[in-house]
Design a protein that fits this description.
The first copy, chain A, is of the alpha+beta class and 152 residues long. Chain A has five helices and five strands, in the order H-H-H-H-E-E-E-E-E-H. Bound molecules: manganese (II) ion (2 copies) and zinc ion (2 copies). The first copy, chain A, binds a DNA duplex (30 and 30 nucleotides) through helix 4.
DNA sequence: ATGCGAATCTGCACGAATTGCAGACAAATG
DNA sequence: CATTTGTCTGCAATTCGTGCAGATTCGCAT
């Protein structure tokens, strides 16, 4: 079992290029940069965070454009938008079915796998048409659990 | 089995009064009104929503005071704060362990019970100290599923 | 009852996150 | 290369929530 763990990313930049053109959306340098930043992104960045990363490689890119592109990707289902932390949305390049552990101290999110998540017994779903279930494990990451003073 | 289903509310106004005084917090008419509004509240109101309800009975109460009181209650563990919907926090007077179904069309939240939620197998929790798990079942409420046009 | 000090209330300014808008600009297409 | 159409940027506006300060009130000890 030496196979590397599979990690799901947002689709390749080239695939997103095709998908955008197919919808009549243009493929600009700004969008290509974001495609590249998102592909292989391990975290759960905010729009501001991606804006900061993008600005390093393309000074002058606007925050407005970052939001625009992220919203387009989310509308196309190429990106998940998470509403787990207060105040701001997290964008998840991992579009595979998965769940999250959230540190209640620093807010960090990490991917987890919950095999039985879609087979949970649920009481109280009368007059409701469920599509999918998401699980959040709250707790403390090791740095926060170790630190005497809360981190952040 | 004719017993009514148990519904967990935030503690009685009288109990909250004691709890507040015990912490050196004063019990004002504004706070007592909010205690009453929250007790027995079936939904998952926003601060603005509670402000609207409170304003009917006490015109002139300020939104700032509503936030202040809700934050105090949350800090004392007498109220849950949910970050499930985009943009705004939901306050949950039901402090019993429970989970939620969320209509992805209209945003409505309802309580559900997930008996196995705390015994889920989770892969990927290395270097993490879990406290509790929360489950969100996404889907459509019947009105939204029935409507040709999305509600809201 | 009265008075005092600490906590609270309200109104407003401010901050963070996100969207609306408009004119300059660039991608796609033939 | 010219045209069309969508995009980019900057800025205003919006929404949710918090910081602040002065007037007010609560809770407790006279
Ligand atoms: Mn994820
Ligand atoms: Mn609830
Ligand atoms: Zn942490
Ligand atoms: Zn609905």
């Amino acid at each position: 079992m030496s196979r590397l763990a599979k990690v799901a990313f947002v689709r390749q930049p080239a695939e997103l290029t095709v998908a955008f053109r197919a919808k009549g959306l243009k493929v600009t340098p700004q969008r290509q940069l974001l495609f590249r930043l998102l592909h292989g992104h391990e975290g759960h960045p905010t729009a501001e965070g991606l804006f900061a990363e993008a600005s390093e490689q393309m000074p002058g890119i606007s925050l407005r454009t970052v939001y625009q592109t992220l919203n387009d990707l989310a509308a196309m289902g190429e990106l998940q938008v998470l509403h787990i932390t207060p105040g701001t949305s997290r964008f998840d390049p991992n579009v595979e079915s998965h769940h999250h552990a959230k540190c209640v101290s620093c807010g960090q999110l990490r991917d987890i796998h919950v095999p039985q998540a879609q087979q949970l017994e649920v009481v109280g779903l009368h007059d409701f048409h469920p599509s999918h279930t998401s699980v959040v494990v709250n707790g403390l990451c090791t740095p926060c659990a170790t630190a005497t003073d809360p981190i952040q």
